Amino acid sequence: MNRLFQIAAIVAATFGILGMPAAARADFQLTLTDGTNTATYSSTAANPNFVASPLAGVQIGQLAVSSMAFSNSPGGANAIVGASTFTLYNQSASAQTFTISVLATGFNSPQSPPPLSLLDTVSGSIGNGTVTGTFQGFADTSANATAGSGTAGQLLNFSASGSSQSFSVSGSADNVFSPDGSTYSLSLVETVTLSGGAIFTVTTGNVSAVMPAPSSVLLLLSSLPVLGSVWASRRRKIAAPAQPTAVA
After folding, report:
1. What are 85-100's pLDDT values in tens digits?
2. Nearest in space to 34 (alpha carbons), one of 89, 93, 105
3. CA distance linking residue 125 with residue 162, whole number of Å
């Protein structure tokens, strides 16, 4: 299984978490659970926007897990929280269900009005076996927010089966979240069911709070097909050969 977790070590080293002090921060947490066994990891003061499970992986019931999460709190043009390069190996012969949740707090940008949109995306691959799952993002202005509380983004469903099969799903909930100057949290919840012996890797899964596109931009985008048709019609007329003039 060490080969499955090598990429986790590389990324962790890139972010500089090796050798960091163990002072934890409760404002950014990664939780792994199979419903019975649970492990929670918090970011450190030195790396407040990055958190990971042990580099060699962690045993959660019958599942060997390696995971890491990131955020850009306090935000910017977009606010984002995500989980990347997380690997699950079902060591049992029967199907197992697993949930990963990530909670990041302290976002203050972007802000409303106008109401923000929540964009969700998740992609990954199955090494063998079958995987089915759901992925959903949330935004919350509550001081006691938890992963999965507050305004919900679009619920994404995914599945893959066979050897080296991949998937990619995205969605949006438009103009649904209005922090109106308040600090807010972003979270994601992903639930995965793996067949016996399956190996599953999530390349990335993230949630973004974004400003909606200005109406003028949407109007321009909506007019592009019409403008394209007009332009193509004019091009055809210009390119059409002139008809010969009849000679009396």
Report:
1. 678 899 999 999 999 9
2. 89
3. 10
Q: How far apart are CA 69 and CA 71, in angstroms?
A: 7
SS3 for 182? coil
Q: Which contiguous run of DSSP H or E holds residue 2?
A: none
- The dihedral built from the CA positions of residue 81, 85, 91 and 94, taken in this order, carries a sign that is positive
pLDDT tens per residue, range 100-130 = 999 999 999 999 999 999 999 999 899 889 9
Q: Are 119 and 156 in contact (CB under 8 A)?
A: no
**Which residue(s) pair with 103 in the sheet?**
29, 187
- State pTM to two decimals: 0.75
Q: Residue holding tokens 């949290």? A: 185
For the chain, which residues make up each domain, given as ranges? 2-219
Contacts for 52 with CB less than 8 Å, ≥ 6 apart: 8, 12, 17, 30, 41, 67, 68, 69
Q: Do 216 and 110 meet the contact criterion of CB atoms below 8 Å apart? A: no
**Comparing C-alpha atoms, which of 125, 153, 157, 154 is closest to residue 140?**
153
Which helix (H) or strand (E) covers residue 18, if one does? none
Residue 242 CA: distances (Å) to CA of 234, 236, 237, 238, 245: 15, 12, 10, 9, 9
Q: Which residues on neighbouring strands pair with residue 58, listed in sequence order?
A: 65
CA dihedral over 199, 205, 19, 54, signed as positive or negative:
negative
Tokens 């409303």 -> residue: 112
Contacts of residue 231, defined as CB under 8 A and 6 or more positions apart, other chains included, come to none
Rounded Cα gap, residues 82 and 72, in angstroms: 9
- Structure tokens given for 236: 């055809």
